[in-house]
Amino acid sequence: MKPINKEILEIADQAFLDILSRKDILIIKHKFSLKNSWYWFHYLCLIAGLFILATYFFNNSRENLTNFHLVLGLLFTLYSTLALLIKYSDEVVIENKIIKIQYNLKRSVFYLSSEKKIIMKTKVIKANPFTGVYGYDYFNITHFIQDKNTEIPIFCFEMINEKAEIAIKLANQLTQLINEKKNDL
């Protein structure tokens, strides 16, 4: 297996992906970063939930605070924590003719064979709150393992729609890396 192009690693860094490719193993996973604007809403929900919980528990006079505050704080905190865990725990590991996938908190293990194909699908996600004037359009790329008539998602990443061209370049390289690893074993 040839080394990964430096340009591809720079694009992966922009997409907040970590790629490790050696002769015996390939690992693709998400990097945690506060710069990732796709998750700013979840970060804000986490901060708001923790703030609501802190005001509930550390306020000496509970006259103005109700159980609604407790429930609201817990909901915000649990929702945002779960959403961030789902994304940042996603990974693909290929080693010894076995592909281990963690996607949306679900772990799967498959034996690689020539019948299984790696495909990718793209779509644009509109994230324009309120009037549609502000916000971003995101370019979403999902990789799948295709076996006969079933498609199983294995990995997904997003980039701002303005970077769609380099996102496709990265996605094609990831598909090629996975297929090379599949064929090498």
Structural notes for this entry:
Helix content is about 40%, strand content about 35%. With about 180 residues, the protein is of the alpha+beta class. It folds into 2 domains: about 5-30 and about 90-185, no CATH class; about 40-85. The strands form 2 sheets. It has a 5-stranded antiparallel β-sheet. The chain has a 3-stranded antiparallel β-sheet with strand order 6-7-8, covered by helices on one side. β4 (about 100-105) and β5 (about 105-110) form a beta hairpin. The mean pLDDT is about 85.
Characteristic terms for this protein:
185 residues; alpha+beta; three-stranded antiparallel sheet; 4 helices; 8 strands
| SSE order, one letter for each helix or strand | HEEHHEEEEEEH
| Total DSSP E strands | 8
Give the spatial strand order of the biggest sheet.
1-2-3-4-5
Could you report the average pLDDT, rounded to the nearest whole number? 83
Distance between the termini: 11 Å
**Morphology call:** elongated
Rounded Rg = 20 Å
- Specify the helix fraction band: 25-40%
How is the main sheet built? 5 strands, antiparallel
How many domains? The number is 2
Q: What structural category do the secondary elements indicate?
A: alpha+beta
Please report the number of helical segments: 4
Low-confidence stretches: none
- Our estimate of the beta-strand percent is 25-35%
